[in-house]
Amino acid sequence: MHSTADARSPDWEHVLREHGLRVTRASVAVLRVLSATASALSHDEVLQVCMQDAEQPFDRVTVYRVLDRLTQAGLADRLMGSDGVARFMLHDAHSSQLFECQACHRLVSLPQDAQLQAVLERLNRSLKRRGMQPSESALRIRGTCADCR
Fold it and tell me: Which of 34, 42, 108, 146 is the most buried (most CB within 10 A)?
């Protein structure tokens, strides 16, 4: 499910410094966990992987604080599932376009699609013509994932 960093992974220490964050063993580990999966992970899932991969496991509070700092710095997104559980994923331009499984509540970024982006831009223009000023748009499609089908 998850893997540790490989030769192509970003220099997370550099990324943390660029965002004004302290470089800690926990923050690098959490970034590696988030970067190794395409779906959003709950705090407990991140903690579980960190405990498996770390020579010295992190406690719950440390992982929670790291996730909070990464979210505040814009490196991660906190996404609320319809089950009321917060999940986290690395921030990217498409992390607001999601598929959520109604059975397992897994959240996955939708595939990049130029037509979808064009529709969202068209909706934003339509809102502007009506005097509204959209600041962000989000799309969430709910259904059943392949694993739960």
Answer: 34
Phi and psi for 39 in degrees, rounded to 5? Answer: -105, 160
- Amino acid identity of 91? H
In tens, the pLDDT along 33-67 reads 999 988 999 999 999 998 887 677 888 999 999 99
pTM beyond 0.90? no
Percent of the chain topping pLDDT 70: 91
* CA angle, residues 88, 9, 117, in degrees to nearest 5: 55
64-71: Cβ within 8 A, 24+ apart: 66/24, 66/26, 66/27, 66/30, 67/30, 67/43, 69/21, 69/27, 70/21, 70/27, 70/30, 70/31, 70/34
